[in-house]
Amino acid sequence: MAETFLYLTLGTGDLPRATRFYDAALAPLGLVRRATEQTEVGYGLPGDVTTRLWITLPFDGRPATPGNGTMPALLAPSRAAVEAFHAAALAHGGSDEGAPGLRPYGPGFFAAYVRDPDGNKLSAVHLDRP
Which of 23, 24, 47, 95 has its CA 20 to 30 A from that of 88? Predict the structure, then answer.
């Protein structure tokens, strides 16, 4: 995740279920759980100075809802990692929103799209760079 990006939060209605999903789906991307709190879990790169992705019960106590048009795109170190992310997401309660493959967003833009068990849309992207 880029240095200019501080953090992102995604809501959940079932933190244990979301934790199982994100532990599995983010591992192929090199992201690890860096924080476990009563109302949230946080993920980031092992050597990063901060936790960049938080999965949280909504602060206001109302039900979590996915944002229409909201989608974090997470960098993947390889095409194989994109494929592993997609497979792990589907095996842990996620749903398919686009199988791994090249996309027309630029040369070498290899991506997969999923929804987590709460309906939040995510993508993993590997950029083949010359």
Answer: 47
Are 29 and 81 in contact by the 8 Å Cβ rule? The answer is yes
Rounded CA gap, 74 and 96, in Å? 16
3-class SS letters over the chain:
CCCCCCCEEEECCCHHHHHHHHHHHHHHHCCEEEEECCCEEEEECCCCCCCCEEEECCCCCCCCCCCCCCCCEEECCCHHHHHHHHHHHHHCCCEEEEEEEECCCCCCEEEEEEECCCCCEEEEEEECCC
Residues of the chain falling short of pLDDT 50: 1-2
